[in-house]
């Protein structure tokens, strides 16, 4: 009880400070909020909203259970999670934060997975998307498209490794699965029968849920944009950087400052890191850590999404930090190999593709691209599931 009281007073102090700072620096706070709103409206909203709506529809119609039956033979032995986790994992890779958390939360609320399975899924299925890593970070910020493949490989490999080791989490409560896969169509129809909602109700609930989630995400983006701005103009960020520099003398103040900004909000942290006078391998390793961790802005979104479930945020945030460190190590170790492979003109291949850089998207292009990605990844999951199902004895 005493710890809860301390937490209450701490949070009260923090948000009182934020409110007072907004009053002291109204112009700067307004501009920061406006930038956060633009980012949400122009990029995040059209990119994620189609996913949020269609995910709820697919779950309600039993399509996710259909796919789960197909992928059970892979997800159960490798990650100790139900086959439905494959949908969360692929969708998380396709679209990025916080799609995986949204699907995991929904599956847990529908009791499709247990608490232990949901905790494992949350660690495995919380990733950034290739559009952000290759388009925004590697090409738009770092100006090196080839580096995107290194960052993406390190990021997804770290998520898989964390997910693999999480299979031993709460092993005592391991679920018992059937050795043979059930008929996917039968599983789908059984789920729809249990849901017992008309298609109109399924779609209506999905739209409401999707809009509510995207509004919450927008609020967090704006809030953390303002917080980051306040920490900079108030001098707190500089003071914290100096203090940490005394503890870790081999890091200069600018590097520490960019790391702190990235811990708050990943995109701004990567931008500041790109401006540092550091070797490319060091920049790539720092950026890889920031992408893997996701930043407090993204993780606060996840906290909000899973708040209605019994999943533990403390375990999640610890593993996100571990994923960031692991991704940074993978990036550092494999940098030489990727640097050698740049003899192939990756930039030319990138330019000739139909990929549109992340920072040049307008609202309609982002919406269309998001919808196209969702349909493509769903088709890919379906084809892969059919192949796996045929090969299941």
Task: Give your account of this protein's structure.
The termini are far apart. Helix 4 runs antiparallel to helix 18, helix 12 runs antiparallel to helix 13 and helix 13 packs antiparallel against helix 14. The longest helix is centred in the N-terminal third of the chain and has 36 residues. This protein has 393 residues and is mostly helical. The chain is 79% helix and 0% strand. The protein has one domain. About 5% of the residues have low confidence. The chain has 18 helices and no strands.
What would a concise description of this structure say?
The protein is mainly alpha-helical and 393 residues long. It has one domain. It contains 18 helices and no strands.
Mean pLDDT: 82
List low-pLDDT spans. 343-360
Structure class: mainly alpha
- What separation lies between the terminal Cα atoms? 54 Å
Share of residues in helices: over 70%
How many domains would you count in the coordinates? Answer: 1
Question: How large is the count of helical segments?
Answer: 18
Global Rg: 22 Å
H/E series: HHHHHHHHHHHHHHHHHH
Categorize the overall geometry: globular
Let me know the largest β-sheet.
none
> How much of the sequence is in beta strands?
under 5%
Total beta strand runs: 0
